[in-house]
């Protein structure tokens, strides 16, 4: 199989589990590709679990529960069973410790919607979901720290593991329009265009991802935290750290040969851009032929639609 790609998924609101969206269809497609290429396991960092001090943890609960997923029907997630990968979790802890991280296990961790609703979309049949390892963030939200976490775990890609960050390209809960969500459980209606700060940062993110590769990608993703619209687009840093984890995992010199793409997108709550990025592509057994994006285009998966202020 060669080295695997890396995904940064904007998980959006919990309605993304139930709503029929372009992003949800892409998550399913990525799951199908993962199964077709016999990925060994999933290593994922979400946006809702962070450790205090200088600590980072890896979930080692052999029978984790799942947190409540509001605004979606419990029938969609209550019977879906997690498939935790304890041996890989312990290995990740060892790899992180070897690079100087204060890393340890969390044997009581309960899975949170930012990870499991994406995994449910990817692998609707939980019996087919590869073993999953969940890595926490650190609550100091140091961008260099989280890039290094991704870089430290990058070697797992060469062994057939799929690394995923789930956060948000534009994710400011304080600036979203919540009325329809609260009254009607509806998040997709765009009664007005997104505000300029949301559009500006969304575009800056696409430009950085698609125009940079290798070490340049890591630097550019970190610099986005200095973008004039960053603080409006990311009211808190937690939903951006998984993007830096992904950049770290795909920011080696070796990764300069592979393209990065914006593959799908869904706007919610007026100002939340759920952009879905894939870094690199699967290769065949010879390591010469790329597959993946061509397959998606041949099946006519809808392309992202750019919302403009004139829409």
Overall domain count: 1
What is the subunit arrangement here?
single chain
CATH level 3 topology: Protocatechuate 4,5-dioxygenase, Chain B
Tally of helical segments: 10
Notable traits:
311 residues, alpha/beta, Protocatechuate 4,5-dioxygenase, Chain B, six-stranded mixed beta sheet, 10 helices, 10 strands, disordered C terminus
Can you give a write-up of this model?
This is Extradiol ring-cleavage dioxygenase, class III enzyme, subunit B. Its cofactor is Zn(2+). Keywords: Dioxygenase, Metal-binding, Oxidoreductase, Zinc. This protein has a single domain (about 5-300), classed as LigB-like (Protocatechuate 4,5-dioxygenase, Chain B). It is built from ten helices and ten strands. The protein has helices spanning about 20-35, 85-100, 115-120, 145-155, 180-185, 195-210, 215-225, 230-235, 240-250, 295-300, and strands at about 5-10, 40-50, 55-60, 100-105, 130-140, 160-165, 260-270, 270-280, 280-285, 290. A six-stranded mixed β-sheet has the order 5-2-6-1-8-7, sandwiched between helices. It has a two-stranded parallel ribbon with strand order 3-4. A hairpin with a 3-residue loop joins strand 7 and strand 8. The termini are far apart.
């Amino acid at each position: 199989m060669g080295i695997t790609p890396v995904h940064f998924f904007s998980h959006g609101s919990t309605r993304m589990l139930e709503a029929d969206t372009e992003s949800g269809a892409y998550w399913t497609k990525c799951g199908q590709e993962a199964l077709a290429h016999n990925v060994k396991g999933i290593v994922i960092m979400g946006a809702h679990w962070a450790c205090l001090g200088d600590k980072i943890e890896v979930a080692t609960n052999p029978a984790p529960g799942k947190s409540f997923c509001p605004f979606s029907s419990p029938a969609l997630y209550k019977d879906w069973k997690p498939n935790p990968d304890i041996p890989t979790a312990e290995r990740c802890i060892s790899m992180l410790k070897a690079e100087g991280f204060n890393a340890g296990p969390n044997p009581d961790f309960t899975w949170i919607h930012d990870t499991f609703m994406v995994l449910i979309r990817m692998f609707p049949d939980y019996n087919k979901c590869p073993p999953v390892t969940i890595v926490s963030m650190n609550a100091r939200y140091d961008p260099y720290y989280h890039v290094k976490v991704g870089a430290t775990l990058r070697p797992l890609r060469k062994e057939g593991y799929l690394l995923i960050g789930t956060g948000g390209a534009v994710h400011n809960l304080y600036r979203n329009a919540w009325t329809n969500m609260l009254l009607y459980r509806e998040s997709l209606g765009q009664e007005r265009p997104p505000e300029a700060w949301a559009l500006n940062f969304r575009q800056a993110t696409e430009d950085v991802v698609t125009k940079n590769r290798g070490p340049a990608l890591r630097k550019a993703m970190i610099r986005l935290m200095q973008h004039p619209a960053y603080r409006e687009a990311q009211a808190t840093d937690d939903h951006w750290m998984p993007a830096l984890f992904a950049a770290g995992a795909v920011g080696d010199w070796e990764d300069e040969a592979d393209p990065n793409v914006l593959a799908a997108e869904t706007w919610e709550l007026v100002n939340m851009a759920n952009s879905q990025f894939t870094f690199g592509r699967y290769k065949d057994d010879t390591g010469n032929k790329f597959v993946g994006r061509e397959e998606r285009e041949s099946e006519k998966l809808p392309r992202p639609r750019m919302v403009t202020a004139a829409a």
